[in-house]
């Protein structure tokens, strides 16, 4: 099986062999990770395409008399990383990550990929990836990569994946636990701030009576509450 999504410069075989040997293959015999030259990566894209005569310049196209050769709704190969010129690493994603074919071919308004055009409906993201697809892991190498560059980037991804619970329920429980810990941390910080404000607002000599004259005295708790930003309270 051979994909057609890399058109042009390919990764050195010895570097790709390192990734395949170290991190294994997919159920379809493809490498789980692959090194890709960004300008060579293509993806299927559906939409309305306008073809112009090669002799017509960009400024001429904006003129009313400039007419395109044709306008057609179809699938075409398009750059996946336009404007980027570097080596990057992609990881294989199984088809189940993209939902079912039925979900994929639903209208975009219903969460699918199918959009309506004047020429008819078309899947904007191409055909359903029955064999899975490759997605960027975020590593960019603007130099000729070495084995160490590759393994450092992929090992970091593998460690983060291993730290996640295997099931969706496990991930949800972990996120809930982390959120609870963050809330406890914020509550503790608030309690410390309140204690500091309360200590600063305590009357001198522990509230013992003193002989002297002064103006009106506001209760310490009222002053403390206002310093904490509480404007409406029963005090």
In quaternary terms, these chains amount to single chain
Largest sheet: 3 strands, antiparallel
SSE sequence, one letter per element:
HEEHEEHEEEHHH
Please give the count of helices.
6
Which range does the strand content fall in? 15-25%
Query: Which class of secondary structure composition applies to the elements?
Result: alpha+beta
Describe the structure.
With 235 residues, the chain is an alpha+beta fold. The protein folds into two domains: 13-166, no CATH class; 173-227. Helix content is 33%, strand content 21%. It is built from six helices and seven strands; from the N terminus they run αββαββαβββααα. It has helices spanning 13-23, 58-61, 101-104, 147-162, 168-201, 220-227; strands at residues 33-37, 42-51, 70-79, 87-93, 114-117, 120-123, 133-141. The strands form three sheets. A three-stranded antiparallel sheet has the order 1-4-7. The protein has a two-stranded antiparallel sheet with strand order 2-3. Strands 5-6 form a two-stranded antiparallel sheet. A hairpin with a 2-residue loop joins β5 (114-117) and β6 (120-123). α5 packs across α6. The model is unreliable at 210-217 (pLDDT under 50).
Describe the structure using short key phrases.
235 residues, two-stranded antiparallel sheet, single chain, extended, alpha+beta
Secondary structure layout:
Elements: H1 13-23, E1 33-37, E2 42-51, H2 58-61, E3 70-79, E4 87-93, H3 101-104, E5 114-117, E6 120-123, E7 133-141, H4 147-162, H5 168-201, H6 220-227
Antiparallel strand pairs: 1-4, 2-3, 4-7, 5-6
């Amino acid at each position: 099986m051979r994909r057609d999504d890399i058109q042009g410069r390919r990764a050195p075989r010895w570097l790709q062999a390192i990734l395949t040997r170290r991190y294994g293959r997919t159920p379809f015999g493809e490498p789980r990770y692959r090194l890709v030259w960004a300008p060579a990566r293509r993806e299927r894209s559906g939409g309305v395409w306008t073809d112009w005569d090669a002799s017509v310049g960009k400024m001429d196209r904006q003129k009313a008399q400039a007419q395109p050769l044709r306008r057609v709704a179809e699938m075409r190969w398009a750059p996946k990383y336009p404007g980027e010129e570097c080596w990057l690493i992609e990881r294989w994603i199984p088809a189940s990550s993209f939902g079912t074919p039925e979900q994929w071919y639903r209208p975009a308004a219903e969460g699918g990929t199918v959009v309506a055009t004047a020429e008819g409906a078309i899947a904007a993201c191409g055909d359903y990836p029955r064999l899975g697809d490759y997605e960027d892991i975020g590593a960019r190498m603007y130099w000729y990569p070495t084995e160490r560059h590759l393994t450092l980037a992929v090992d970091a991804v593998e460690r983060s994946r291993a730290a996640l619970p295997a099931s969706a329920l496990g991930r949800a429980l972990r996120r809930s636990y982390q959120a609870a810990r963050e809330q406890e941390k914020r509550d503790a910080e608030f309690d410390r701030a309140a204690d500091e404000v309360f200590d600063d607002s305590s009357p001198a000599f522990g509230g013992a009576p003193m002989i002297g004259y002064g103006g009106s005295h506001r209760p310490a708790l009222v002053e403390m509450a206002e310093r904490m930003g509480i404007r409406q309270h029963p005090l």
